[in-house]
Each structure stands twice: as structure tokens, then as C-alpha cells.
Amino acid sequence: MLTLLSMFYYICLRRRSRSGTRGEALTSRRAVESGQRATLPISVEVEQYAKEVLDFSSHYGSENSMSYTMWNLAGMPNVYPSSGDFTQTAVFRAYGTWWEQCASAPLPFRRTPKAFHSQDYIELAFEEPVYPTAVEVLETYHPGAIVQIMACSLNPFSQNPPTDVRWEVLWAEEPTKVLTPQARQFSPSIKQLSFPTNLIRVEVNSSLLKYYTELDAVVLRGQKERPILSLYKMPRIDICDLSDSDEELSDPGASFRQAGDGKHINLGNGYFDKLPYELIQLIVSHLTLPDLCRLTQTCKLLHQHCCDPLQYIQLSLQPYWARLSDTSLGHLQGRCTLLQRLNLSWTGNRGALTLTGFSSFMKACGGSLVCLELSCCHFLSEPCLEVISQTCPGLQELNLSSCDRLHPQAFTHISKLTQLRRLVLYRTKIEQTAMLSILTFCIELRHLNLGSCVMIDDYDVVASMLAVRCRSLRSLDLWRCRNLTERGLAELAAGCRLLEELDLGWCSTLQSSSGCFQHLARNLPCLRKLFLTANRTVCDSDIEELAANCPALQHLDILGTRMVSSSSLRKLLQACPKLLLLDVSFCSQVDARIVQELCGLFPNVAIKKSFTQ
């Protein structure tokens, strides 16, 4: 380290003679700016609401309606300045840390940068490209989830898209906890862009929120002409600029190899040479991926450590989605021969990744993969899934969440991955035939997410097949499945007795009068999470059966029921000491006074009561 500092100091001295040039540049810039301020023309600011929602990672609503969907962000506000829970707003699928605490949650990836906080996103197109001066987000309920706002150089309405698509961060911050759930207009100070944009991306993290955040509209303000002050930019001074010649750059230590008496000094890597190989490996394992790649350029010793395949057993490229390309995968390919867990979520869109680049990487590095995250990867096609099925025989976890542009036929290849234990197909176009084929061959499944899969014709048949083929199932998400009946639910409960999580939210065909929920409670003693969201028929008898048979219950959502009283809730809270979340929003017989009383009696339980003003 001392040697490197000495070298750096020497090179700085050699460059000192050029310091006058930098001073002149700074003086020149001040002169230009002062002169331009006096003659700066007045430019008209354009204000526009989003014209179209292009892409998003999740939403609370249905694929076949507008209630609580991301499509509500297009156009002028529907709710603002009112506060509360309104169906005309955009709502993401999750909030808080409840989902991370469930058994179905994937393990976090190592080396995720501390500055990366995003969990969900939405991309919005506006009518006219402008140089942004402000971005305003109208938040109408539980604000504070927005962590990053980005702009893209691509015009989504252009007939001739550029080959080089750039994303720039306009604003970014850590998640914040807003004390009030009231509506607000969020307008952070944004950075100036060197290109016009009409494509804005908003990224959120809802982990600190007490309930679902709701967004009403997004406003983009900007100028059609580029501001004059931004035309002059001071070039950034890089460390490479401190060298006088190409020779010094290629051999920066040449001047130090000979002492004053003519003797040569052997300058090694200092104490690094004496450290055990394993210890250096441990040290560099704490670096993020970009830092790891930069460190390879310092010396041969660290190059060897930073390129060791043991450093790439886990690889999350999601934080770098905006810069990832076929070339990036090609550079990493030689280092990932021992890769076991790979996260490519959000990557590759708008031509950044191709079938050729993806296939080449998977064929070289997919042989040992056990986990593959591909959420919102719209570059995926049927040949891509075929490559996965051929090159990843030991794959145990596959996430295709919100890959809604995949052709239904593509999902048939998943049935070849017979070792699968976790499969996420949320918001995909999988059809019943492909789903039944997967269940026939993938009998080791532990976690299955079929939320908002609207192309499946008969969920009773799927439930029956699960009961027969996947008896070790631990979690099942059937959020908004539209045709599951009490017959299919009874077969599921009888065959999958180890179920710990079951999401039946917005499954309107299930009726409590059939006794299906009571039968469910009696047959699933290990149940820890049960969502019966928006089922108006849930009654006291169902709650009492849960209290009697499911002592391990931690999460219960009965939002919207009109037949549950405070007495049955009290029994549930007393019988289930591990309960952490109870959502009784819009339960007509449970008013705010009762909720306040229950919160006082059971302070460890987060009892949710949404409201509308």
C-alpha cells in the first residue's frame, strides 16, 4: 500500500505543471456561466401527465380490470388531493417485511450494493421529450416508498430507436418512513440531463411502510430546448489523467525500480504476499461486483483472486440492469464456471440482452445452477427457456414473475426441470396444459406461485393434481385465480397437509357457506399464513376454526368481510400467540374503536384497518 501511495505522489508531482491549465478552465467556465446568465433566453416549461404505462414489476389489481392496477397512473389524477384507500390508484403487490419473513421468500444474494434499495418499479411514457426540470409523484396513501427516479434516452414512440439506450438517475435516496398516511405531492430535486426524455422510471421500496402505498399520477415538467448552462461541462479529472505518457500508464512503477546507488529494489505486493490465499479471498468477497472488477486491474495477485470462480458462486446482476448487455455477460462468462445462484431480474430489456448472448452464458455457466431469478425479463423467449431446461438439470428455484410477454407454449419446457422446488409464475400467460405437465414431472415442488395467471381455465383441476403429485408443498399462491371452487380447495387441503402458506386473496368463487374454510383449517395444522382477501363471506365460524386448529398462524388477511365480529377476533388473538399480521380493513363489523382496543390488548400484532375519506 505504501508503495502505491508513493507512486501516486510521484505522478502527481509530474503533473503539477499542468495545474495552471485546470485553473484557466475553471476561470473560463465561470466567465461563460456569468455571461450566459445575463443573456439566458426564457424557455417555456412543459407540464405533462403520463400518456402510457409501459412496464411494471407487480400490482395489487387484476389483469382484467382497472382497480388498484398500475394502468391507473396514465393520465390526470383521479383521487389527489384526497387521502385514503381508493380503487382508482396504482398499488404494488406487497408492503412491509411480511413477505420476507415467509418460508416462500428466496434467500438474499450476497454482494448486493448497499445503495440498491429497489423492490418494484414502473415505467411511464410521456407525449413529448423534454429536458426535465421536475418530476412530481402524487401519492395518496402511505407515501414514502419511492427510492429512485430515472430517465431514459429512448423515445418509446419513435419508429427508429437508437442502438445505444442510456438510463440516468435523476434522484435516489434510501427508504424513508413517513409518519402520516395522508396524501402528498412528492417532488424531489433532480439532476440535469444532457438529453431529452419522455420515458421515466419510478422505483419503490415499501419495506418501511405500515400499509400499501397508493400512487395517483406522475407529472413531468421540462423544457423542449436544452438549457444553455448544461451545454458547457467541465471534464472530469480521472486518475488516469495524472500520467504524462502512455509509457507511464503501462509501467507506473518503472521509476522506482532502481535506487540511488544503482541497486535494483524488488517491490512486491507488500504484506499481501504473506497472507493466506483463503484470507485474501475472504477480504475481496465483501466487495461489490463493480469494485471486484476494478480491483482486477491493480496487480496480478489481486487479479488472480478477483477472477477466482469461487468469488462468483452467487451473482446478482439486478442492481446493474441499466448497464447489462451481451458484452457484460461475455466478460463474466470465464469467471462463473462454478455459478450456483444467478439473479438476472429486470435485465436485458429493449435489446440489451439477446438470445445469442444469454444462451452462450447459460451453456458455459449454467451447469451447476440451483437458483435462477428472471423476474421482468422481457427478452426471454421460448428458445431461452429451452436452453435453461437443457443446461440447468439441477435447477431448484426458477422465478419468471411478470414475464408476461412469454408465449404460453414456452412454459412446457419447465417440466424438464424435475428437481424444481420453488417456481414463481406470477403474472405470466401459462396455460392449463403446460401447468399440468409441470406438476406431472416436478413432484419435488415446495413453493408455487400462480398469482394472477389468468390463462388457466380450471384451477380445480390444478388443485387436484397438486394434491396427488406434490404432497410436500409448503406454500401456494393463488392470488386472484378466478375459478377455484370448494371442491378443488377440499382436495388441496386433503392432499397437501404440510401447507404453511396459502394465498386465496380475491378468489371470489369460494363461499364460506360451503364449509370450505372450516375444512381447510381442520386439515392444515401447520398453516402460518392465510390470505382470504376480499372474500365477503368469511364469518365467525371460520375464524373460530382457525383459532382452534392453527396455533402457528402468523399472517391472516380477511380484508372486506362483513360477517366477522370482534369476539371471534379476540379468540383468534388469544389462541395464536405467534400472530404478527391481521388485516381487517373494510370489515364492516370491526370499527376503529375495536381495532384500537385489540391493539392495546395484543401489542405484538400489527392489526391493519384501512380507511377511505
From TrEMBL:
Domain F-box: 269-324
Family annotation (SMART domains): LRR_CC
Gene3D superfamilies found in the cross-reference section: 1.20.1280.50, Ribonuclease Inhibitor
GO biological process, one term: SCF-dependent proteasomal ubiquitin-dependent protein catabolic process
Pfam family, one: F-box-like
One GO term describing the cellular component: SCF ubiquitin ligase complex
UniProt entry keywords in alphabetical sequence: Leucine-rich repeat, Ubl conjugation pathway
Protein name in the entry: F-box domain-containing protein
